[in-house]
Amino acid sequence: MKPKVWQSITENCWALLLLCLPFTSFPALAKLFHGASVAPLSIVFLGILALIFFLPRFIKTRSIPKQSLPIFVFFLVAALATALAAFIPFESFRNASVSRNALEGLLTVALGIGFYLLTTTIIVDGTTLRKSLQWIYLGGLIAILASLIQAVAWQLYGEYPQILWNLQSYISSSGLLYRQRVTGVAFEPSWLAHQFNTLYIPLWLGFSVKKISISKKRIFGIFTFENILLILGAIVLFLSFSRIGWLTTLVVVAFVVFGLADKAMNRWLSKHSEQSGKTVSRSQHFLSKFGMWVGLLIVFGLVALGLGMLFSRIDPRMEQLFNIERLKQFGVLGWASKLSFAERLIYWITGFRVFLAHPWFGVGLGGAGFFFPALVPEFGYGLPEVVRYLFTLNILPNIKNLWVRLLAETGILGFAFYTSWVYLHWREAVQLERSGVGELDRALGFTGKLFIIALIMEGFSMDTFGLPYYWIALGLVVAARRISQQAKAPQSIKTTEEVNSSTEPLESNQPA
What we know:
The two termini are 24 Å apart. The protein has a domain at 3-241 and 395-496. It has helices spanning 3-19, 27-32, 42-61, 69-84, 98-122, 126-157, 162-171, 189-209, 225-240, 243-276, 282-314, 324-337, 342-357, 372-375, 384-391, 402-435, 439-458, 469-500. Helix content is 70%, strand content 0%. By secondary structure, the protein is mainly alpha-helical.
């Protein structure tokens, strides 16, 4: 087959992979994986690209991005922890299989790494990067339109028309639509919020703050595509009624505002120093910054209070948010039970107890749920959802918290390597924002920090490795960093040649 044909197939599969990101649990794939809810449609194109692009390239070059080394070590530690779990006595949990859950856990990590590596290697230049962003935007637009159609239908009819139920059954293994909550084309509303928070909104927010766009066109001569998509994405996120989604967005926005305020204060102090002809002392600098931080904290505290009051009126789960008397009388768990949040706390506490029992290597991927009946706090037996998981549902309980799951199933060693991988990408994002060659590179550096903040927050709600969003997001940062570094190389070569007065053409010194 001709190289151009292979290139065309690769480009089309990559475009389809990015376009299909919002589809988190495609029914045909869910059946193939024996009813797994985590079955993104993009896996199909990941498999194709792994065979026709990544593996041939890896065999030829024998190289992977250096930033991926910690996650490979994490995978090895997770595999070792899973193997060592054979020496741990597991309690039976109905028909759940320890080996099958372990295999699924390893497979989801492998899939996540696959999305990450493919993103870092297939984006080779600025053109590929821009095209990739365009396809990501279009995928986000699909999720937005599906969500807005659901919201409008609910407002008009007070229920969802049958055609929407039928459509949802074709694109999601759950086939469910939720009362007053939009789902888009995801498995459930919280998954919709997860994909927006870990990929789409940070992209659109970061580019809007940096005042750049992948397109020169302006809507009404003012707004960029990122501006419009950010507004629509925020509306969809609100309509998902995902509380961790709301909180994640608030934290990301707070980070942006605090960063902009800090830069504005530095400029003001510098300008004031120039106008007065006096250098600002350290104490004056400290007091100015301290006053700014305190003021912003008060503002965001009031914003959080106002949002809490609003949500307590529009979301039945939040009605008891300000019931301080219940908090005093029954404690945090008793108060949280009225917010439909105590169940999550129980899962987290149980997962942490698993970690305390097996601190170094954990109990292996997929193994934490088998310890729930023995370690769940007594308060959990008063919560209907927890009781259903323990005694009725034929589903192994899960921790619903990525960070606690890492501790419980891979121990302190696995947690350390995974978090070091995340921290390494924070450093890459910082360097890209500071020293990126072009505006797009620097904007992606800033956006990379938003990706990681969103990942940290969303990790308190999702515990799966199989959803591709943050893997692709961090892969974008690595690809942009590499492209920026490559763009600098010819400049340094040219500078050296000018100094040495060389007569050889520049191209002759460039690597093939």
